């Protein structure tokens, strides 16, 4: 039977989070990471860094001692690349389902077990209903996938909350036909995922590739928090994803610290107080990698400057 209680009687209202691996994105989310017990949607155009971001979050969950699962509906997971991003592939639970129904049943089963901390589904567009798989190539199946997602998310939302499991759905974008004004982009799978998601992240390339000389070594990615039920939305973070190794947390910290005014940048020189970190961002990052204490001090200053919600909450608990 259902229970009723006063909200003030709950011992803790703070949401448990899993860091994203990028301090800039953690700050943009306003709570220090991806919320546990909730549904998160990461969507955007192709080759924009969606799967890389999701795998980085899995790696962070494993670093905290958690168990991570990857439901590979696209059948495109590269274990070697995942390992380079910091994922312990030997401990990662992987499923490659044949149908959309099977994929969502696996997600529900994992969530109900209470033994998994974060589940990634890659991707919603690849969750093909059984009726469509068994039908012929030209058959029309109107609204089948949307109905499937709606039914599954109705069940999943409560299960995820009770087990404190984060579910990350990666989604692609499509274009609506005949839209003359406004944004023609939409996401597959109907509207249910938009409603049930506590956080929606729009991930796409921004600007030119990162180059060393004439060689492209990475891409710049803009992440916009389109929906956020736990903090103010519409904040943005710019990430740098390097080919073959993903996000560099120290380079990310340098970018955030410069934006926050903690690290000073004069021309191409970076400095922090009396410390001259180096000429160029790469040299500054190398200097900080060799000095972990200084790195932690800068991180603490950035969090202090940004008025980090998690930091404030922990201080209040300590009083």
UniProtKB/TrEMBL annotation:
Residues 14-173, 178-252 form the RecA family profile domain. It holds the Pfam family RecA_N. PROSITE patterns: RECA_1, RECA_2, RECA_3. GO terms for molecular function: ATP binding; ATP-dependent DNA damage sensor activity; single-stranded DNA binding. Gene3D superfamilies: P-loop containing nucleotide triphosphate hydrolases. One of its GO terms (biological process) is SOS response. GO terms for cellular component: cytosol. Belongs to the RecA family. This is Protein RecA.
């Amino acid at each position: 039977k259902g229970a009723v209680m006063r909200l003030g009687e709950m011992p803790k209202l703070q949401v448990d989070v899993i860091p994203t691996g990028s301090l800039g994105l953690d700050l943009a989310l306003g709570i220090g990471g991806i919320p546990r017990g909730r549904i998160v949607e990461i969507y955007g155009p192709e080759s924009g860094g969606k799967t890389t971001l999701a795998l980085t979050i899995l790696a962070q969950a494993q670093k905290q001692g958690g168990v991570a699962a990857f439901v590979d509906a696209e059948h495109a997971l590269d274990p070697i690349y995942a390992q380079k991003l910091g994922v312990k592939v030997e401990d990662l639970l992987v499923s490659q389902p044949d149908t959309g129904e099977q994929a969502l049943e696996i997600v529900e089963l994992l969530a109900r077990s209470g033994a998994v901390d974060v589940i990634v589904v890659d991707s919603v567009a690849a969750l093909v209903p059984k009726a469509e798989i068994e039908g012929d190539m030209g058959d029309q199946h109107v609204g089948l996938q949307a109905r499937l997602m709606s039914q599954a998310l109705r069940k999943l939302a409560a299960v995820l909350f009770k087990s404190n499991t984060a579910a990350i759905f990666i989604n692609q974008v499509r274009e609506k036909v005949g839209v003359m004004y406004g944004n023609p982009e939409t996401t597959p799978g109907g509207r249910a995922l938009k409603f049930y998601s506590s956080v929606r992240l729009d991930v796409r390339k921004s600007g030119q590739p990162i180059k060393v000389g004439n060689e492209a070594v990475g891409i710049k990615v803009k992440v916009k928090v389109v929906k956020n039920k736990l903090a103010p939305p519409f904040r943005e973070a710019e990430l740098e994803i390097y080919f073959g190794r993903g996000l560099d947390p120290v380079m990310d910290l340098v970018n955030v610290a410069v934006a926050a005014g903690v690290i000073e940048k004069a021309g191409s020189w970076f400095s922090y107080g009396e410390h001259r970190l180096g000429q160029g961002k790469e040299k500054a990052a190398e200097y900080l990698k060799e000095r972990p204490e200084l790195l932690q001090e800068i991180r603490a200053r950035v969090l202090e400057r940004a008025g980090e919600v998690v930091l404030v909450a922990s201080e209040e608990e300590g009083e």
